[in-house]
Design goal:
Elements lengths: L1 H17 L13 H13 L1 H4 L6 E6 L20 E25 L3 E25 L2 E4 L6 E4 L2 E5 L3 E20 L7 E3 L2 E3 L8 E7 L1 E5 L9 E8 L2 E6 L10 E2 L3 E3 L4 E3 L4 E8 L10 E7 L2 E5 L3 E5 L6 E11 L1 H4 E3 L6 E10 L1
Parallel strand pairs: 13-14, 16-23
Antiparallel strand pairs: 1-2, 2-3, 2-22, 3-6, 3-7, 4-5, 7-10, 7-11, 8-9, 10-15, 11-23, 12-13, 12-17, 17-20, 18-19, 18-21, 21-23
């Protein structure tokens, strides 16, 4: 009986202490009206949603190294013949794209939009020489005494022709950050600081966007790894790094959000000298890669990772500037077939 009375006293005390207290503020998770307003802003800034502008079905001339048969080709001696080609032009055509778009609201009354893009591409290739190699020579390994086939006869076809690499899959993501406008006419004090409440009803505005990274193929393969990209316009030099964990760093980094009013700004018609540097950890060395810069559908090859592109915009606004590094093996090999491997950086520009 005494124990029951004690329990009742504890419960009564708890009720008295909490009586009159306001319930905790509900976690902000947005409303259908918020969703609609943000999607409308995305649609109004359609360049932010664009990734198809990386591809242009127009064929362009490229200059890659001559075909060779390195020691590594001996790994394929079970494939007879081994067929390689040298290409002089290429076009990439987008055949399908799927976007997963997700809105995440936070308790500070903000919204981050996650954009995941998956797309498939066809590479249309023109070759000027085709090499067919036959493993028709027997070599004796003097150390092990094994008899191995080696490449001896190579037939060269210089008639030229076209073929395609189909089913190329790519995947990438970027983020777009929104927050509501605040009422500057109603200042409040919070923890000794002046703050302004969110306007009612909420008016959303685009505040920050991220850079974007896209990879070929979309899952589980080695790709060229970009370390940094240097952009030079006249005497101005901008460097974009892969990552930087210094929260005070104010430069351009792929793993950061960027305020829309602090994007790299260029004038329409600016000529940019582009240099793409690969990481020392890259599994595909720069000597076995092709490099490109892409702007507003125009694709420019960069010899050895360096070259110039002119920014030809259709109007003022935010545009995607791309740099791309492609492993050449998929372009060289017809038999055995090699996977198309590439890395793409999307860098937002504001064209004035």
């Amino acid at each position: 009986m005494k124990r029951c009375l004690a329990y009742l006293l504890v419960i009564a005390s708890f009720v008295m202490i909490n009586c009159g207290n306001e319930p905790p503020e509900e976690f902000f998770d947005g409303t259908p009206a918020d969703d609609s307003a943000i999607v409308n802003l995305l649609n109004a800034n359609s360049n932010l949603m664009e990734t198809a502008d990386l591809y242009n079905p127009a064929i362009i001339s490229i200059n890659i190294a001559a075909v060779s048969f390195p020691v590594a080709d001996s790994y394929f001696r079970s494939v007879d013949p081994i067929i390689k080609q040298h290409i002089d032009s290429i076009a990439l055509d987008l055949t399908d794209t799927v976007r997963f778009q997700d809105l995440w609201y936070a308790k500070d009354t903000t919204c981050t939009v996650y954009l995941w893009d998956t797309f498939t591409v066809i590479a249309s290739i023109h070759w000027d020489k085709k090499y067919t190699g036959y493993y028709d020579s027997l070599d004796i390994d003097t150390l092990l005494g094994d008899t191995l086939k080696s490449l001896k006869t190579i037939v060269i076809d210089s008639t030229g022709g076209y073929n395609e690499i189909t089913g190329i899959a790519a995947e990438g993501t970027r983020h777009i950050f929104f927050e509501p406008k605040r009422d500057s006419t109603k200042p409040e004090t919070l923890d000794g600081k002046i703050v302004y409440p969110v306007k009612d009803p909420r008016e959303w505005q685009l505040k920050r966007i991220s850079y974007g990274s896209y990879y070929f193929p979309n899952r589980g393969a080695e790709r060229p790894i970009i370390s940094d990209v240097i952009l030079q316009t006249g005497t101005r030099v901008d460097t974009i790094f892969s990552s930087n964990t210094d929260t005070l760093y104010a430069g351009h980094v792929m793993n950061r959000f960027r305020s829309v009013d602090s994007l790299m700004q260029h004038a329409n018609g600016d000529s940019i000298r582009v240099t793409i540097n690969l990481s020392t950890l890259t599994p595909i060395l720069s000597g076995n890669c092709s490099f490109y810069a892409v702007f507003n559908g125009e694709r420019v090859p960069l010899a050895y990772g360096t070259g110039t592109i002119v920014l030809n915009a259709t109007a003022a606004g935010i545009y995607n500037f791309y740099v791309e590094v492609v492993g050449n093996d998929a372009l060289y090999y017809l038999q055995p077939v090699k996977t198309y491997q590439a890395s793409v950086w999307l860098i937002p520009f504001e064209i004035q």
